[in-house]
Amino acid sequence: MNSRKVGPASSSAPQPKLTKDQFIALRSLARGRWVQSNEIAWKFNRSWRYVQLSNISLEAVHLLQIRGLAIKGKCCWKCRRNVYLLTEAGLKFVTHANTPIQHHSAIGGASITKPSVISRMLYWLGR
Fold this sequence. Notes:
The chain has a single domain, classed as Arc Repressor Mutant, subunit A (Orthogonal Bundle). Helices cover 39% and strands 19% of the residues. It has helices spanning 20-31, 55-67, 88-98, 104-107, 117-126, and strands spanning 34-35, 39-44, 47-52, 70-74, 82-86.
C-alpha cells in the first residue's frame, strides 16, 4: 500500500522574517563556528567584535535551529563542548542575502534537490 507521509501543517506556512538578532547570529555563524566557552563574532554598531556567548545569541541560534538553518553538535569525543554550525540551507541563505538584488534572478532560488554529503555529515554531528 502506497501511503504518503504528510508533514506538519506549519511546514507549508510561510516563515516569518528573521529578527535582527537572528540575522546577526546567522552572519556570525557564516564567519565561523561557535564553540562553547570561546568568544564569538557579534556585530555592534556596524563593526564586528568578539564576545562570550550570551542568552540573546543562544536564543537566536536556537530559533535558527528550528528553521533548519543551524545545527548544534559536539566538538570532539574528549571535550564534548557544544558547537554551533550553519547547515547547507543556512549557507545558501547567507549567500543569497549577501548577493546584490540584481543578481538574484540570475542565480535562481536556493532550493536543495538532493542532500549532499556535507549536509548529511552536519546532520550527523547535530545528533
